[in-house]
Amino acid sequence: MKGFCRFLLDCIFPRECVSCGDLAGGRLVCSRCAGRIRSAAGAGRLPGPAVTPVISPFLTCDVLLDMIRFLKFEGGSAAAGWLGRRMSEALEPHVRRLGDPVLVPVPLHWTRLARRGYDQARLLASEVSRNTGIPLKGRALVRSRMTRPQSVLDRDARRGNIDGAFRLRRAGDLKGKDVVLVDDLVTTGETALACRRTLEAAGPSSFAVLCAGRKSAEKIKVERSEGLMFE
Ligand SMILES: [Zn+2]
After folding, report:
1. 118 alpha carbon to ligand 1 midpoint, in Å?
2. Of 19, 40, 92, 94, which one has the greatest count of Cβ atoms within 10 A?
3. Ligand 1 mean position to 92 CA, how many Å?
4. What are the tens digits of pLDDT across the range 145-156?
């Protein structure tokens, strides 16, 4: 029986650390890698004149990137559950200030969804919705144009790549709501800003971003000056 339970656990949680490949004792990452994940103290904010908080449990690091990669490409529902719980905890203190919050995931283009079979932002938003009871508006925003991966582009090209890539589908659902946009990672914020510009037409009351990991402000500054950015 014990062996069978172990087998079931191995099916749900990988036996090896998703970052370094060492034995992880049924956890997503081994204790050494877990120790390298840094919590994000307080919220960041998107660039621009409008104040848009970026709420995340963690700062982006190699271990977190490996977890997101696992979630994206290997269908890691265990990673979605773990990250979703941490994101829900990070959102908790902000929820009290929001009157009528809704979760809107950053959508994938349908061709990419068909190829991958997994929409990581949608998965994370579903977990947060389940944990917090905040309604999920999974179809409020659609990606109407195929875009190149932001990670291969420099800063100016990123904005041109993503600008106008989204459109509203059920705008009436968002009028007067406190929209919490959900994505896996926020780096320069260009994707979130493009979503914000599109969502503004729906007349939401406020706008915030929730993600699993964000870059620290200092790191973004250095990478911008070097022309290196990741998303
Ligand atoms: Zn490890």
Report:
1. 24
2. 19
3. 29
4. 666 666 666 666
